[in-house]
Amino acid sequence: MFSASRLLFSCTLAAGTLAPAAPISLRVCADPNNLPYSNAQKQGFENEMAAMIGKDIGAHVSYFWYPQRGAFFRKTLGSGACNVVMGVPEGLDETTTTRPYYRSSYVFVSRHDRDLRIHSFDDPRLRRLRVGVHVLGDADRSSPPVEALLSRGLAHNLVGYNIFGNLAEANPPSDLIRAVSNKQVDVAIAWGPLAGYFSRDSATPLDITPIAADPSNPTLPLSFDIAIGVRPGNYQLRDRLNEELSRRAPEIHDLLRAYGIPQMDLSAPAAGGTK
């Protein structure tokens, strides 16, 4: 659900004069096929954010491309190939994270002409509907919505779509949203940014409904605060990025909205165990 990108530069005070330090290269770790976040053509919102902040602080922005798979952080930040990942859950262990710049949640997606208006995992209609979900390609891991559905005995209702696809397939997460539009499934449950972005290309209007929480498991994380990740312990870079995120908050909000990203109120208490 996450992604990669970011920047730095600093100032020092000497002899009573504020003098800029030499700019450093902002080396961004990013997936080359991961819209709406990033791609090799730099068409994602994280690519745009990196360019925006890099220009502000005079940093040269370059990319290290690597597919977001299980070894992503070890092969990128951990190997020293880059110094920033644009979109990670706040507090992620593999990084030092900035303040969050948006919060989003998992959502229900359905055709508007079906008028399903499903808001809860406990909706009895889910027992007779085909429910599309993203699968991670790992038998030992399930997304939080899949856990919620399995706990209700709905395994036979699920239709899985691999979120990673294959390396030759463009925009593999879009398959799930297209399945709703094409009536291959009745409803989908997807991470909000993916649903919002790919729903814009649907041939028929789609309804997107945020999932606030699972009443049967209130600690199940269904919404996440998303931040920028830097190499562990690089507090100077984190603090510089925090300044930019605060200063550029209105522009970032508008950028995400332009990409169709559902945004929740960051100032409100987080539901469902947000990290």
Description:
The protein has helices at residues 45-57, 72-75, 144-150, 174-181, 192-199, 235-247, 249-258, and strands at 11-14, 17-20, 25-30, 33-34, 38-39, 60-65, 84-89, 96-97, 102-111, 131-135, 158-162, 187-191, 206-210, 223-230. It is an alpha/beta fold and 275 residues long. Strands 3, 6, 7, 8, 9, 10, 11, 12, 13 and 14 form a ten-stranded mixed β-sheet that branches. It has a two-stranded antiparallel ribbon with strand order 1-2. A hairpin with a 3-residue loop joins β4 (33-34) and β5. It is globular and about 55 Å long. It starts with 10 loop residues before the first strand and ends in a 17-residue tail after the last helix.
Comma- or semicolon-separated keywords:
two-stranded antiparallel ribbon; 275 residues; ten-stranded mixed beta sheet; alpha/beta
Distance between the termini: 13 Å
- The backbone outline, from C-alpha atoms, is globular
Low-confidence stretches: 4-22
Total number of helical segments? 7
Q: Which whole number gives the mean pLDDT?
A: 88
Percent of residues in helices comes to 10-25%
Question: Could you give a short account of the major beta sheet?
Answer: 10 strands, mixed
Oligomer: single chain
What's the helix-strand series?
Answer: EEEEEHEHEEEEHEHEHEEHH
Radius of gyration over all CA atoms, rounded: 20 Å
Based on secondary structure, the structural category is: alpha/beta
Strand content: 25-35%
